[in-house]
Specification:
This protein is α/β, with parallel strands linked by helices. The chain contains eight helices and eleven strands. The strands form two sheets. Strands 3-10-9-8-7-6-5-4 form an eight-stranded parallel beta sheet. Bound molecules: D-xylitol-5-phosphate and zinc ion.
Length: 239
């Protein structure tokens, strides 16, 4: 994200902060029959990253795809692959996803009794480690993990499906996490995933998020709408 802070206090202006969030469209809402073309289309339409939802039908009640498909998709975009693992035992798949070309690999700590070790292994494999927090998982799960991660994914719906409604009480968690990140002083992307729309994006960004995942809000009208839909989410927010 880029943040331009215009601090006008000395000049009598109201302080103004412009935020341009990263936009990471979730291909869960893309046409699975032509995923390569879909990824190329959102890349051209202005996506900053490609959000890839990997589900195993065990940790979450839905199935998508795994590393072999990701590897076939890799040549279709040079943008970072922001891979969200909603799977049990994520440690077993680190090398497969590194080999497939994942740039960020995010795990759910509830799915891994040794999350600290898994995050270190993700970094050792050459990827940026991320942690996802379910709506009912409190922010303090991260107390002893903040040194290990480059991204926090706040799930603003229960994971497993696209097209659900944003859970408003997650704004409080985003604010809490923003405070923790600032206190830590590390450059950690604060990403929000689930039910994100142009209407609720301003409040999500005001709470301190720096990256927005969106499935339905980007893919809803087919390829001709992608650029406008991304622009509607990204439009510089003044807070
Ligand atoms: C849900 C996934 C999300 C989902 C978002 O389990 O992690 O990435 O695709 O879809 P929308 O934006 O439609 O809520
Ligand atoms: Zn996701």
């Amino acid at each position: 994200m880029t943040v331009h802070a215009l601090r006008g206090r000395a000049f009598g202006f109201t302080p103004l902060t412009m935020i341009s969030p990263l936009i990471s469209p979730s291909i869960l809402s893309a046409d699975f029959a032509c995923l390569g073309e879909e990824i190329a289309a959102i890349d051209t339409a202005g996506a900053d990253m490609i959000h890839v939802d990997v589900m195993d039908g065990h940790y979450v009640p839905n199935l998508t795809f795994g590393a072999p498909i990701l590897k076939k998709l890799r040549p279709h975009s040079k943008k970072p692959f922001d891979v969200h693992l909603m799977i049990s035992n994520p440690a077993a798949y680190i090398h497969a996803f590194a080999d497939a070309g994942a740039d960020i690999l995010t795990i759910h700590p509830e799915a891994d009794p040794h999350a600290h070790r898994t995050l270190q292994a993700i970094r050792a494999a050459g990827m940026k480690p991320g942690i996802a927090l379910n709506p009912s998982t409190p922010a303090n799960w991260l107390d002893f993990l903040l040194d290990e991660i480059d991204l926090i994914l706040v799930m603003s719906v229960n994971p497993g499906f696209g097209g659900q409604s944003f859970i408003p009480n997650q704004l409080e968690k985003i604010r809490d996490l923003r405070t923790r990140i600032n206190a830590k002083g590390r450059d950690i992307i604060l990403e929000v995933d689930g039910g994100v729309t142009p209407e609720n994006a301003p409040s999500i960004l005001q709470a301190g998020a720096t990256s927005l995942v969106a499935g339905s809000a980007v893919f809803k009208d087919g390829p001709s709408g992608y650029a406008d839909n991304i622009k509607a989410l990204r439009r510089d927010q003044t807070i």
